[in-house]
């Protein structure tokens, strides 16, 4: 007796870059899902509601309800999608190239975005534009140099990877 | 042809570097350590030499198998994929996702908000700033661990999540965060610090540990 699997539910804000990463992955892998918007600005920020906090104690988007669990953290979600719905793949086969993909993704996800997210900019106050520009620029300076070594058509080689979104067919050049 | 020993660029007190030191110790990988002092000389990570090695101008960086990697979790995943035993991830994809969610929460959601560079920009109120981000991050983590933890962060095996937890707790202690509200984090941290890999990689036992902080 098999139950029909429930459609995944993505908690997302239209302009959240972290949510967008997951939306790209779901689209690339052809996974349909329901989207529940969480407005990070209205009502003092809907991510702080008791209801959303119970779903994701980190009080952030994205969160994904899938296969009976709820996950947060965009790259943890994307890795889960990669491991359970492996085609098309978001990572190269070669471990060194996989490491380059993760290095680039982590640089953006840990080294740039958190320093310019809504919560931080609210704390910074008046000089937030300058603050955000500073961290994005300095992060992009480093990224530009790294991409000189890794990039083909996309961030790492010629197949789209989870460094910025991805589809690839598995017969790659070795 | 013997392969060269890996070289880790590390700062004794950098929590990001400590994560990788734990992974190398757990996997029994010997390496040479090159200290990069983040404070001296205006910060040695800004030297032309180090910048050429790692444009992100951060530690850790690892030279291994003919490539140079940065970003602690990218490095740890590479070690996991090329030296798979002992493993730092569970077999089950859902548990793997929980490990990564916890690790990413620390690595993206807490540590960057209290790293040296940011605190320098914050200036006077940096203690309060760091305490705020660590506390609010630990509040969330304490709740998540209620669901995932066994002896360690996820079940009873050491994982990447644990490698991220211990260094972050050390940071919390340095910033005098009250750990009272986080009994699960405290318990797990204590259990992990009993393991040899967490001891040998500890900031107080590194080649660049200052004499007054050495264990």
From TrEMBL, chain A:
Name this protein carries in UniProt: maleylacetoacetate isomerase
Catalytic activity: 4-maleylacetoacetate = 4-fumarylacetoacetate
Keyword match Ubl conjugation: no
Claim: Transcription is one of the keywords in the record: no
PANTHER family linked to this entry: MALEYLACETOACETATE ISOMERASE (PTHR42673)
The GST N-terminal domain, residue ranges: 6-89
Listed InterPro entries: Glutathione-S-Trfase_C-like (IPR010987), Glutathione-S-Trfase_C_sf (IPR036282), Glutathione_S-Trfase (IPR040079), Glutathione_S-Trfase_N (IPR004045), GST_Zeta (IPR005955), GST_Zeta_N (IPR034333), Thioredoxin-like_sf (IPR036249)
Cofactor: glutathione
Single GO biological process annotation from the record: glutathione metabolic process
Associated pathway: Amino-acid degradation; L-phenylalanine degradation; acetoacetate and fumarate from L-phenylalanine: step 5/6
Keyword terms: Isomerase, Phenylalanine catabolism, Transferase, Tyrosine catabolism
Family listed: Belongs to the GST superfamily. Zeta family.
UniProt domain GST C-terminal: residue ranges: 94-174
Species lineage: Eukaryota, Metazoa, Chordata, Craniata, Vertebrata
Annotated EC: 5.2.1.2
Cellular component GO terms, alphabetical: mitochondrion
UniProtKB/TrEMBL annotation, chain B:
Molecular function GO terms recorded: glutathione transferase activity; maleylacetoacetate isomerase activity
Cofactor requirements of the protein: glutathione
EC number in record: 2.5.1.18, 5.2.1.2
Keyword Cytoplasm found: yes
SUPFAM superfamilies xref list: GST C-terminal domain-like, Thioredoxin-like
Subcellular location: Cytoplasm
GO BP of this protein: glutathione metabolic process; L-phenylalanine catabolic process; L-tyrosine catabolic process
InterPro entries according to UniProt: Glutathione-S-Trfase_C-like, Glutathione-S-Trfase_C_sf, Glutathione_S-Trfase, Glutathione_S-Trfase_N, GST_C, GST_Zeta, GST_Zeta_C, GST_Zeta_N
Principal cellular location given in the protein's record: cytoplasm
Reactions performed catalytically: 4-maleylacetoacetate = 4-fumarylacetoacetate; RX + glutathione = an S-substituted glutathione + a halide anion + H(+)
Gene Ontology, cellular component aspect: mitochondrion
Keywords in alphabetical order: Cytoplasm, Isomerase, Phenylalanine catabolism, Transferase, Tyrosine catabolism
Similarity comment text for this entry: Belongs to the GST superfamily. Zeta family.
Protein name, entry field: Maleylacetoacetate isomerase
């Amino acid at each position: 007796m098999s139950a029909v699997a429930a459609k995944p539910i993505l908690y997302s804000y239209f302009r959240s870059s972290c949510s967008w990463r997951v939306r790209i992955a779901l689209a690339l892998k052809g996974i349909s899902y329901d989207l529940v918007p969480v407005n990070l600005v209205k009502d003092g920020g809907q991510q702080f509601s008791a209801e959303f906090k119970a779903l994701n104690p980190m009080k952030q988007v994205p969160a994904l309800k899938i296969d009976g669990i709820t996950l947060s953290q965009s790259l943890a979600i994307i890795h889960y999608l990669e491991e359970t719905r492996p085609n098309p793949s978001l990572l190269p086969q070669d471990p060194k190239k996989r490491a380059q993909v993760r290095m680039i993704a982590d640089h953006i996800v840990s080294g740039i975005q958190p320093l310019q997210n809504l919560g931080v900019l609210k704390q910074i106050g008046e000089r937030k534009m300058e603050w955000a520009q500073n961290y994005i620029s300095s992060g992009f300076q480093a990224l530009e140099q790294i991409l000189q070594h890794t990039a083909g058509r996309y961030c790492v080689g010629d197949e789209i990877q989870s460094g910025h979104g991805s589809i690839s067919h598995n017969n790659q050049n070795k």
